[in-house]
What does this fold into?
Amino acid sequence: MTSETAAGHTTVEIDRPGALPTAAQQAAAAKDKVLTSPDAIEAARSALGEITEPLSVGRYAASRQLDKRLITHLFECNLTGYRGWRWAVTMSRPPRGRTATICELELLPGEEALLAPAWVPWADRLRPGDTTRSDRLPRRETDERLEPGWEATGEEEGDTVALDELDLGRARVLSAEGYRRAAQRWYDGDHGPDAEGVRKAHATCSTCGFLVPMAGRLRNTFGVCANEWAADDGRVVSLDHGCGAHSETDLPDQGPEWPVAPSRLDEEAMEPLATNGTDLRGGHGRDEAGAQEQQEQAESAPAGADAAPEESAPEESAPEESAPEESAPEPEVASASQRAASARDAVADLALERERHDATQRPAAADALAQLEASLPTRS
It folds into this structure.
């Protein structure tokens, strides 16, 4: 069984005679009461038992009428490796006869049977897309897509086109059938109006500045895309095709990609400084600045030595840390007697404050006062 595709290629379909018949075929077979009777079906099953194991014959599937008084009964096949195959028993009867006669027994492939591909002639095995630029194809003398370029058609427009093609030095040019097939193939392909993403385009190729018009019969339907950023660059596209790389297509203003925040640096309040070490050192060199710094340290050394005994004097005012915050700090030059007097005054104030507390806190306050008085130095 053969069929022809839209592109004109012939394909061979595998015949599966063991496929289940249609409802109309089964209804036509059921009209013959003799050949479709239970006795005829049982006789067909018994006949299969003579050529194969009875267990390999499965349930009864259906019957198909091949001709008048000629019917085939189908049984499922239980043989290992023959999934989808069916046993077929063809039976017939004479006119006005009441006895079914077995004509043929066979095993036929069904819908799910695994079969080898159908034989395709060598001349038909090559398909568009299988060849490269380096492959050379044989010449076909009778190609319905071509016609002689000098043949007069009787139509003024057709004759003019043929003469134009003849000027190019070609013996044959595209015929009307060749133009039709090419136009239909391009229009239905990935560069036509029904391609993926075309509906999202805001404009068609007919209004795009990158479209290169075509000459000849296809100029009103197709053109060539010349936009290097388009997916169809260098390809034939239909005028109602479209993409996002249209010459007049633009995106709405979406603002900057990153938020613009005002600067937190007040450049007007900045004071410019020097950019080199000499200016920062007041015009002195590095050696001069180092010698001057050492001299200043030497001049300030005696003052630091005189203040050393005072710094190393024992700190007898340790209880001062626990004094209330209300007492003003004593000057650093105060003597030991002055610090002791200040401490006694602080103790007196603390004792007066403790007496105001509840009786439950008096033992703890008395102990604290005793410890504080014991740590104070005696008056000389």
In short: The two ends are 136 Å apart (CA to CA). DSSP finds ten helices and eleven strands in the chain.
